[in-house]
Amino acid sequence: MKRAFALSLALAAAALASAVSPAKAGTELKGAHYLAPTHPLGVGYEVFKELVERESKGDINVRIFAGESLLPAKAISDGVRDGVADFGTVTMSYSPSYYNYGLMLGDLAMFGPNDTVAAVAQTELFTMHCKGCQMDARKQNQLIFVGFSTPQYVLVGKGAMNTLETIKGKKLRAGGPLWARFAAHVGAVAVNIPSSEIYEGLSRGILDAAMYARGGLKTHGLADVSDTVSEVPLGSFRAQNYFSFNIESWKSLTADQRKIVLHGIAAGAIANRIAYDKGEQDGVNLGKEKGIKFLQPDAAMAKSIEEFVEKDAIETVKNWEAKGLKDAGEVIAKYKELYKKYEPLVTPIQNDQDKLTALIMEQIFSKLDLNTYGLK
Predict the structure, then answer these.
(1) How far apart are CA 284 and CA 296, in angstroms?
(2) Cβ–Cβ < 8 Å for 200, 180
(3) Residue 362 DSSP code
(4) CATH number of this structure's domain 153-234
(5) Going by C-beta distance under 8 Å and a sequence separation of 6 or more, which residues neighbour residue 365?
(6) Angle CA 29–133–260, to nearest 5
(7) CATH node for 25-148+240-285+310-367
(8) Where are the beta strands (DSSP E) in 204-305?
(9) 115-158: pLDDT as tens digits
């Protein structure tokens, strides 16, 4: 089994190196994200740095600027565009006029409960099928390579909200239009506040619950101001270009170097997902220690969510077609097709860093011609 796995990695690497040119000496890449090095965003970037420097034998030096030390979160897109950073974490909702396709896919946040599957499916969509996604990025002098997903949002707050009766009229923190629409669907009230204000909102009664990840019980201290987690599946935030790459920086690399960078991007994206999942478990463990109740949605709530997701997807297509994305239905259908493709491939190796990285390399990145991709 190990020999077969090693062979698959070798084949993926060989396919990527279809035509290799001599490596440039002393290449430096600057990467920017906006959270701490220990946050899942930072964890993925550190994995990228370590792999790229190791596989290039020091030929590529990677400098990571964390915590907005180089660029503020909302300025990373412009910073990568202008070459202040060679790559960065671009949250598409911070620059909504730039990334219509990314925001459209963000509206599908409640489709598909497995976040790693969603991230891998988006990776193939972005690089191989969605011309609009690439064109949006190219207009900002960038390339888009991998999908992204936070953990699933649930209801973290005070009191049970796992039934249609108990959620009605509740004040729920909604982190975007999708969740505001869901709140209206179940008769709740959406409150638009940033995640940094959830703790205060719950402690002061401004919120009854937050639509947020379980990891927030620990990272945001919500275990101190909550007594119940209603595990209503509310999707996750996915409108992010985790490794947005400056086109000139990509062009400056040799084929060998691009191969190594793509391997680093794949490994970093998976490390990010695994770190997020670990944070979720840490939050759940802390919640249980503090006696917080974890409640499953009843049958009526589950059915209502299914109806909302189906109806909202139809409305999403109509809305984005009206905004000028004439292929909205085609792109969404392809994304759903890819999710179904990767679900049986990803699920058995859900927490295996090496195998998930190899999956991206074999299924997606090995099929890119590194002498032409992103260069024309």
Answers:
(1) 14
(2) no
(3) H
(4) 3.40.190.10
(5) 12, 16, 127, 262, 263, 266
(6) 30
(7) 3.40.190.170
(8) 209-213, 228-230, 240-246, 293-295
(9) 999 999 999 999 999 999 999 999 999 999 999 999 999 999 99
